[in-house]
Amino acid sequence: EVQLVESGGGLVKPGGSLRLSCAASGFTFSSYNMNWVRQAPGKGLEWVSSISSSSTYIYYADSVKGRFTISRDNAKNSLYLQMNSLRAEDTAVYYCARDTSPWGQGTLVTVSS
Amino acid sequence: DIQMTQSPSSLSASVGDRVTITCRASQSITSYLNWYQQKPGKAPKLLIYAASSLQSGVPSRFSGSGSGTDFTLTISSLQPEDFATYYCQQSYSSPRTFGQGTKVEIK
User: Fold this and answer.
1) What is the mean pLDDT of chain B?
2) How many Å is the Cα radius of gyration of chain A?
3) A26-52 pLDDT tens trace
4) What strand order describes the sheet that includes B45-49?
5) Which of the 8 DSSP states describes residue A13?
6) Kind plus residue range of the DSSP H or E element containing A5
7) Strand pairing class (A18-25; A3-7)
8) What whole-number distance in Å separates Cα of residue A54 and Cα of residue A57?
9) What pLDDT is attached to residue B106?
10) N- to C-terminal Cα distance for chain A?
11) Measured between alpha carbons, how far is A63 from A48 in angstroms, rounded to an integer?
């Protein structure tokens, strides 16, 4: 069974940092592009970042460019999102997704003083 | 960036109704269009990819059509489990923008 499990969310102060992880299982992780998508409370979906299967191509939303870094470790079947200089508007549930499907259950990031 | 505009933002329908949701891209995305369903507190679930291809395991009452800039998601006979929010997303180029969502509610 294909499974994606996010972790690393929590409460952080504005200006702080957090590293999200996404553990993948049930498929050949190294063959797939991966994405991070977020959803602020009561709001719609916002694509955050994508990384190609071998990390050759990386893309970011303008809203996080220069603050967030996506990476992956194909040996560990894991995807990461390093989030620095966090702002209140980064508060959201963060989902990892294998290309278009499936998605993980999400991890909540709350940025508040 | 490509803007995705869904309509309507919400709709009320009854079980058994035929429901149509539209999604318009600000420029041509050929057939690089996906549709997702999201229920409260759950992760989105892929319904349709490449504009008209049904994801494995998704009931055949869901269908997608369109190409270029105009796309449609149709639910042929609405079931109780279909009450949810639906999103389109273009996968033609980054940023892979989503529509604002369409909430389908019980009439």
Assistant:
1) 97
2) 13
3) 999 999 999 999 999 999 999 999 999
4) B10-13, B102-106, B85-90, B33-38, B45-49, B53-54
5) -
6) strand A3-7
7) antiparallel
8) 8
9) 87
10) 40
11) 8
The Cβ of residue A100 has, within 10 Å, a number of other Cβ atoms equal to 19
* Residue B6 near chain A (CB below 8 Å): no
* B94 vs A: CB within 8 A: yes
Two tokens at B50?
């490449």
From CA A51, how far away is CA A69, in angstroms rounded? Answer: 10
The predicted-structure confidence for A55-105, as pLDDT tens digits, reads as follows 999 999 999 999 999 999 999 999 999 999 999 999 999 999 999 999 999
Residue A31 corresponds to which amino acid?
S
* Alpha-carbon gap, residue A8 to B66, rounded angstroms: 39
Return the pLDDT at A47: 97
Report which residue type is found at A1.
E
Interface test with B, best of A103, A105, A108 (most B CBs within 10 A): A103
- Among A44, A50, A106, beta carbon nearest to B98: A44
> How many Å lie between the alpha carbon of A35 and the closest alpha carbon of chain B?
10
